[in-house]
Amino acid sequence: MISFDKCADLLSISEMKAAYFQRLVAPMDGMWDSGFTDPAPHWEIRLDGASAGYYAANDEGALLQFYVRPSFEQDARTLFDHVIAQDALTQIVVSTIDPSVLSLCLDLQKEVTVHTYLYELAAAVPAMHRDADGLDFRLVEKDELDRTIAFQQASLGGEHDLTAWLQGYSANLIERKELFVLCRNEDWIGLGERRVSDSQAGIADVGMMVIPSHRKNGWATYILRLLVVMTEEEGRRAICSATVENIASQKAIERAGFVSRHRIMNVAL
Fold first, then answer.
1. 214 Cβ partners below 8 Å, 6+ apart?
2. What is the pLDDT of residue 116?
3. How far is CA 231 from CA 15, 24, 137, 141, 147, in A?
4. Which CATH class is domain 120-261?
5. Would you say 208 and 224 are in contact if contact means Cβ atoms under 8 Å apart?
6. Which conformational region is residue 235 in: left (phi greater than 0), alpha (psi within -120 to 50 degrees), or beta?
7. CA dist., res. 171 & res. 179, Å (int)
8. pLDDT tens per residue across span 5-45
């Protein structure tokens, strides 16, 4: 008999969560982990009353994470099918770093599209820029939150007002001392973030954005290089990501010494 118990919090499945990350063949992108998967409802999977694994699915009908304990791997196909049917899921977000779940998805897929490139550092690239003299790369202060949000909104552009989301996201980064600004006096050129992973030891996600007026001058790559140096000095590995359509970020990331060996994909059922 297969049943599902909704998790009141992630602590109840922390052991399985840790085992899930140990199973991956490369680090998971921190934004997908803490920004999208962790806030989604999680369910413990039970087989004949025993804890067999867990899954996470959002309200849009997408499976975000699926894990089965090693002792129940022979039942993975059956459990996976029951999870899909339980929530009438129509989509799975899966990465090539999770080959066991990817294989299960491919058995059911109607369409597979690549959403995000995952990057790992492949070469040490020095943090240099011809116009770097006189610049400061410093932590963003708490009283600069409003300016930070305005800068991010202007950099991201688009039709949607992301102020509410950026408010919480950036405030958290500032509180954790993980958000930096590249500036010349009061002129802000770009932001860099270095998010130390809470779930993957020794890993930090790095990312950047540059205001449109300063783009195409190598500042995005320079910010990434600064973040890589900082991360390595702390004894951590830097990873980053870019969506498929963000060609400019991909180029900056690659110039900073990163290479993409893995993808996050959307699998339509």
1. 189, 190
2. 98
3. 27, 22, 14, 20, 25
4. alpha beta
5. yes
6. left
7. 9
8. 999 999 999 999 999 999 999 999 998 998 899 999 999 99
Q: What are phi and psi of 233, to 5 degrees?
A: -65, -25
**How far is residue 36 from each of residues 33, 43, 51, 63, 225, measured CA to CA in Å?**
6, 15, 24, 11, 27
At 136-186, the pLDDT tens digits run: 999 999 999 999 999 999 999 877 788 898 999 999 999 999 999 999 999
Global confidence as pTM: 0.93
Answer yes or no: are the C-beta atoms of 201 and 190 closer than 8 Å: no
| CATH class of the domain defined by 2-108 | alpha beta
What is the C-alpha separation between 142 and 227, in angstroms, rounded? Answer: 20
Q: What is the DSSP letter of 27?
A: P
Q: Is residue 13 within 8 Å of 180, Cβ to Cβ?
A: no
Domain ranges, ordered by start, for the chain? 2-108, 120-261
Cα separation, 262 vs 268, in Å, equals: 19
Question: Alpha-carbon dihedral of residues 10, 12, 14, 19, nearest 10 degrees?
Answer: -120
Q: Do domains 2-108 and 120-261 have the same CATH topology?
A: yes
Q: Are the C-beta atoms of 84 and 67 separated by less than 8 Å?
A: no
Neighbours of 153 (CB within 10 A): 15
